[in-house]
Design a protein that fits this description.
Layout lengths: L10 H6 L4 E6 L2 E6 L3 H20 L7 E5 L3 E3 L2 E3 L3 E5 L18 E5 L5 H14 L4 E6 L4 E8 L2 E9 L3 E2 L9 E2 L1 H4 L2
Parallel strand pairs: 7-8
Antiparallel strand pairs: 1-2, 3-6, 4-5, 6-7, 8-9, 9-10, 11-12
Length: 186
């Protein structure tokens, strides 16, 4: 009788994925997606710009973080690529000499699109919780919203939803005021 068991994907499958695709490994399944649309990329760039100087560089802010754009995370059997992630320097004092890290971040941001929202919310967010990521931000450029999630036990609690022209002071980056308008700028 032929086996109907599905072969689990491995990190080698991630490494062999075409360069023009973002490859992730979730529950033994290789998931590939095209590079983000420009509106999505713009939101990520604007947020990265707003956080990097004050938190990674310590310019007009407290410093103490490593903030990365699209890092590859190895969390248990999963390989994830959040849009932005951040580590407090006491947990990751310097970057490893690898193309990935197995140190779970303190913060992840996912920028939602119609093609990624279900994966981001339904699969990636629970994995972040399982690995102790304290804060997750979900940005929806089309809806012009930012949802702030905070780890509360084994799952996330919605702290707030912001949008439009709001200027926020939001954990874990509440040491600065962050204008949301650049996230939606076209």
């Amino acid at each position: 009788m032929p086996s109907t068991a599905k072969k689990l994907a491995t990190y080698d499958d991630v490494r062999r994925a075409p360069e023009h695709l973002v490859a992730q490994l979730i529950d033994g399944e290789l998931i590939t997606q095209p590079r983000p649309a420009l509106r999505h990329a713009r939101s990520g760039s604007a947020l990265h710009y707003g956080l990097f100087g004050p938190f990674d560089g310590g310019v007009d802010g407290p410093g103490g973080w490593i903030i990365l754009f699209e890092p590859e995370l190895h969390l248990g059997p999963h390989v994830l690529v959040p849009d932005i992630a951040g580590w407090r320097r006491e947990r990751m004092s310097e970057l490893p000499d690898e193309p990935y890290t197995s140190v779970a971040p303190d913060f992840c941001c996912e920028i939602l699109s119609p093609s990624t929202a279900k994966l981001d919310r339904g699969k990636k967010v629970p994995i972040y919780a399982e690995h102790g990521v304290g804060h997750v931000w979900l940005i929806d450029p089309a809806m012009r919203t930012l949802e702030l999630l905070s780890l509360d036990g084994e799952s996330y609690r919605l702290l707030a939803t912001y949008g439009g022209d709001d200027v926020i002071e939001a954990p874990p980056f509440d040491a600065i005021r962050l204008a949301l308008t650049p996230l939606w700028s076209r």
